[in-house]
Each structure stands twice: as C-alpha cells, then as structure tokens.
Amino acid sequence: MPPTAETAQVSHRATYRVVLAEPRFRLLFSTRAVAITADALRITTFSVLVFSSTGSALLSAVAFGIGFIPQLFGSLLLGSLADRLPPRALITGGYALTCATALLLALVRMPVAASLGVVALVSLATPVFHGASSRLVAQSLEGDAYVLGRSLNNIAGAGAQLFGLALGGAAVAALGPRRALAVSAVLYLGCALAIRIRLPRLQPGEFGGTPSSAGSDGGAVRASLQGAGLLLRGRTVRRLMLAQWLPVALVAGAEGLIVAYAGERRFAAGWYAVLMGCLPVGMLVGDLLVGRFLRPPARERLVVPLVALAGLPLIGFAAEPGVGVSSCLLLLSGLGYAYGLGLQRPFLDALPQDGRGQAFGLLGSGSMTLQGVGPVCLGAVAAVIGTGGAIALAGGAAVLTAGWILTWHPPASPALAPNRVVSSE
Q1: Are both 241 and 125 inside the same structural domain?
Q2: Range of 238's domain?
Q3: Residues with Cβ within 8 Å of residue 177, at least 6 apart in sequence
Q4: Which residues contact 379 (CB under 8 A, 6 or more apart)?
Q5: Which of 160, 234, 350, 409 is the least buried, fewest Cβ under 10 Å from its Cβ?
Q6: Nearest to 35 by CA among 108, 88, 102, 132
Q7: Are 188 and 99 a contacting pair, CB within 8 Å?
Q8: The CATH number of the domain where 304 resides is what?
C-alpha cells in the first residue's frame, strides 16, 4: 500500500533547528529554561533558610517539597482557566506571582508555618500558567516538531535544574539565603517582562481555546472539576497520563534516597552530589539520542524498552554497589527517561481540542505531586528494608509498569493512523 499523506506526517522526523526557528516556541522555551533555574534556586534556598531558622531536617524537607503536592489540587480546581483566559496574561501573571513570592520570602521575616503556607498557596496556580504555556507550544508546533519541542524542554529542564542547584549553593554561600531568594525573584521578573513584551496578545479562541469567560458554566472551579473528570474518564488519556507519571515518580523516589544510600555506604564526602547528577546527565543524553536520531515510529516502538531501562538498573542497588557501579546504574536509568518522547504524539492526539490547556496542566501537576510523594513512600520502605533494597524495589515497580504499558501500547508502525494507539471508552 502506498504511503498516505497522514502516514508521511506521522513518520516524518523534524529537527531541532526547525523547532527553534519558530519564534513563539523560542520565546516560551528560553523563558521556561530561565524559570526552571530560578525554581531550583528558590526551592533549595528556601529549604536552607528554613533549616537555618529551625534546625529541623524535617521542616527543611517539607520546605523543599511544599510546592509540589498542592499542584494537583490546583489543576483540579483551577485547570480550566488555562483554556479560558488569554495566554499572555496567564503566563506573565504566573511569573510575576512567583517573583512576588520569592521577594516576600526574601524581605519579610515570617513564621515558618506562614512561609510554608504562602509557597503552598501560590503553587495552586502553577498548573494554570504551565498549562497555558504547554497549550501554546502544541498550537505553535505540528507533528514531530511538537515532540522535539518537548524533547528540547526536557533537555533544557535537566540542564537548568543542574545549573540552578549549583547557582543556589554559590548564591547562598556568597550572599546568604535571603539575598539568594532575591536573585531568583529577579530571574522570574525577567521572564515575566519577556513574555509581556514579546508574546502577542492572543485570545483563547485564537489558539484553539474556549473563548468563553472564566465564570461561565457555573464558574471556573466547577468547570475545572468537570473537565478533569472528563479527561480521566477517557481510558486513552488516563492510561497515557499514568504511563507518563508512574515511571518518573518511581525513579524520583529512588533519587530521593541517594543521599541516605551514600551515607549508609560511607562514601567520601561530596560523592552523593555526583550520584545525584548522574540521572539528569542520563536524561540529557537519552533525550538527545532518541529525539535527534530516531523517527517517530521508532520512538513509539521504544516506549516499553525505555521504561524498562529506567527501572532495571535500579534493581542492581539490591547488591549495594560502590560509587563507580552506582554512578553507572543511575546514568543508565536516566537514559530511560526518553521513553516519554514516544508518548507525546499519542497523548496530544487523544486530547479534546478545547481542553488541552487543562490536560497539560493536569499532566504536569500530577507528575510533580507523585514526584513529591514518591520519596516519602520509599523513605518509609527504606526504614524497614534499607535504602539499597528500597531503590531496587522502585526499579522493579518501574519494570512492572513497563509490562503494564506493553499490554495496551502496541508497537508503532508507520502505517498506523495517529489515533490508533489505544481505544477510548
């Protein structure tokens, strides 16, 4: 059978050069990379500030993760706004709000409970402007260019996170935690100004959204709950979301035990940082290889093997290896993160046109929430069976997840139509 135009579009491989040539994506990409750097700087610095004020390791850990878990509730209650309000106002407002939060933490000496409450409250709005930004990317890039756009965001995110962590340590050492928080506020402000000045003013209807007001259909909260319920009731969307959530949450849970593992194994001081850097390095390499050199059908065929690759090396921690072997295992696990690229096109195709902003917000907030819960759950397991055993357990669960995905995600073929991934209820 000769290839159709639809088949050619599915199998066509875009390039990073083409993706970065799109002005709107380039603006969103660059500001998001700066914002991720600011996020890493703010989160680590806030954790240091809380620890220096209280001396409590528990409160310091809570400060580190307090911005993650509330995001899912924000997506469920406010997610529809990503499809109802103009994207420039939402994205600019989101960066301005995080700027104000960082400044408040830097300038006002609040009780720890109050500062934690402020961070948690602001994080409720995070899925809204992230959803609007992701929706705008999906509208600006078509076909494989969209998948490579997500790949670039992953690469930039991993690099910016590493840079933000390093910058946070240097800024705290040179300026102290409060001034370091002010530095993150300046970065957020730069992102807000760039979006406000350079992004065209678009109404929701101009980028595929719902041009109705935020208060229609009974209000934003009711519409958000209805929209989230509609998305999660669809078997295709629900499965694709879980497939993107679970392996990442399990590996993140294992990552949260690295410091404790290094301590139990009595590795030399500083080696825990090397181990923690192996996963993002693997992510960078994996996204580059899979995104740059493989065609779309090949990426989709590799989803299950790559999920298995993310989990299998972690099982090796059951033998409690030394520094060298542990570094290699974490690096290999990071390579498996590229599995997500093979799910981007099927996920986009499965979404309703007028609910993509909320869907992207729900996808991101669910992932962040589970990444916050994962280390807590595995930490409890580690208290019983040890950190090596808990990390291995996380790897085994990721391999089981790969087996579950195999039951409903058939190997992609160039002849498959875009919506052939799995049936909907």
Answers
A1: no
A2: 229-414
A3: 45, 46, 48, 49, 52
A4: 256, 257, 260, 390
A5: 234
A6: 102
A7: yes
A8: 1.20.1250.20
